[in-house]
């Protein structure tokens, strides 16, 4: 089970990238399936050619960043639907990834990777290994939270909240989308690079269907911790990623066929999406909305009207960005 937790913490890096597009930009980016493999491919081939593993991770970030820029340019300058732009980039990356690796699989057995010191110290699969990967995920989450509170980050949030409004204020929303997609896929590329070093290989098929895992992590985590602030939302993504991997592990230990993993992933996402719609959860959100809870107001239709009847509380912000909510 500790392996599942470690994997969940590493995949949380990818999930943070999905969070940036899915929640902040409100953009359906399917580039992830390709950029994850791109990050793994760049890192693996770099390490095989003698490049420092940490520098290889940085190169994976740059490669993912470039993939995100392509999707951003297709959708903003090419006026291609965002969903289709992501699919086009993802398909193109499949061939590029094969070009980078030269074959479908690049093993890292016998190579020094960023994980080698942890493996040599025997801490993988134990509390220290979990602590090391948790530290990495939390640090990246804090960097993302810091960025989203800068002027550029606030403009990016506003672009996702109300693109027309923020454009009327003179913000170039195209640039915000391109930057958001680039940073998102940069994080996804880093996730791919770390996973390749952790598992000891990069494979052309390792990113297929990964967007589902990213979405599941975001939805499951925020269903538990909520998204009252960006910090809580980011930490929720990490928690969701761990829960997702543990759930997969439990399903496999329960006797399910590993070939059914994609089906299990889809079922988990469906359950996470349907559960909040059950009457018991709706009643709970309705009560919170009537009490003026902004977290519930985000998810409850007609919450503003309910809150208007609630006892007077502090003034309600006009946009989620002003309140730091995501």
TrEMBL record:
Domain of life: Bacteria
Cellular component per GO, a single term: plasma membrane
Positions of transmembrane segments: 7-25, 54-75, 82-100, 120-148, 178-198, 204-225, 230-251, 263-281
Membrane topology note: Multi-pass membrane protein
Alphabetized InterPro entries for the sequence: ABC_transp_permease
Subcellular location: Cell membrane
Segments of skewed composition (Low complexity): 299-326
Record's keyword terms, sorted: Cell membrane, Membrane, Transmembrane, Transmembrane helix
GO MF annotations, alphabetized: transmembrane transporter activity
Region called Disordered, residue ranges: 289-326
Pfam family, one: BPD_transp_2
Keyword Cell membrane attributed: yes
Keyword presence, Protein biosynthesis: no
Protein's recorded name: ABC transporter permease
Gene source species: Brachybacterium vulturis
